[in-house]
Very-long-chain 3-oxoacyl-CoA reductase-like (Priapulus caudatus), 320 residues
Amino acid sequence: MDSAPAAAAGGVCVCTYVFAVIGVVCSAYVALSCLRFVCRLVKVYALSRPLHLYADLSKMGSWAVVTGATDGIGKQYALQLAEQGLNIVLIGRSPEKLKATESEVRMRSNVQVKTVVVDYSGGREIYDDVERELAGLEIGVLVNNVGMCYAWMFDEFLDVERDLHLRMLNVNMMSCVAMTYIVLPQMVERKRGLVINIASLAGVVPIPFMATYSATKAFVCFFSRILEQEYEEKGIQFQVVTPGFVSTNMTSQIDVNAWCVTAETYVRSAIATVGLQSRTAGYLMHELMVAGFQLSSERALCKELKNEMIKFKAKHCKSE
Ligand SMILES: NC(=O)c1ccc[n+]([C@@H]2O[C@H](COP(=O)([O-])OP(=O)(O)OC[C@H]3O[C@@H](n4cnc5c(N)ncnc54)[C@H](OP(=O)(O)O)[C@@H]3O)[C@@H](O)[C@H]2O)c1
């Protein structure tokens, strides 16, 4: 007579047990993932520089090529790669700024420097000259850094001239593909080389009011990750770097704070991730931003970002 309630109680017990086991397994998985994440951050951002855990870039080849090397992040890559003993090819659109950067590199490091004047907003016609200029150099590192954004940084799609959107495609995407196509064959032949592609946090999450910019940076992320798969067995490393805010001309030299760093600090941190992370935010606080963004729901995040952009723009419009 009592067997039905007893069976029901037994069923409840089994269910409780199963849920408890699932709970423990899930908690353990989350705890282990968090621990792995923290260990990775400690290794990459606290130990890599003092213990020199990152790749020895001077072993990749004797020259490094940096696009958009006359200011901001690109200029810092040029200066800091030269510090590591690599000869540098500086590519930029302004002959005066190239000369100034060349002098700065020579003053700080005893390396060879070559400059190439190119405006990357041009189409395929500009690349034959670039190829000629790079011929004969043993290029170990290519930094696809050149990039442009909107004058305002954030603008509604139709408020930006069509030509500016199209130039952005050339500068941010075509340069990456064409420069990699020029440099990669000799790296493959030597079975050694590193291509660093500078994307953006805006390439990890779609950012409202930055449609074309954000989409071009997503392209750079995919391009890099796919070539990483295709060429890892051939000895070539691809790294995609997704900065948050860095105080440069592109960001109107915004104030430095916990989330926004100088280009010098940023690049010092990012270079120490080479060989440890093929996808990196390059800087601890930016890594936390990426992780936070990836945990959020895309729709809610975009809505929040949209509101923040509107507030940011209103504040800046007033202060102009
Ligand atoms: N700053 C940030 O917060 C941030 C965040 C995420 C991603 N990024 C990415 O980081 C990269 C570097 O940005 P940045 O902040 O260092 O910008 P930046 O200070 O404006 O420097 C950009 C560099 O690219 C050059 N350049 C721009 N347009 C060019 C063109 N059409 N042809 C040839 N060279 C050109 C600039 O030359 P001039 O000196 O002649 O202008 C300068 O040397 C970009 O790909 C950007 O998208 C930056």
Summary: Strands lie at 63-67, 87-92, 113-117, 139-144, 193-198, 236-241, 245-247, 260-262, 279-280. The chain is about 55% helix and 15% strand. Residues 68-74, 92-94, 97, 118-121, 145-148, 171, 198, 200, 243, 245-246, 248-251, 263 surround NAP (CB under 6 Å).
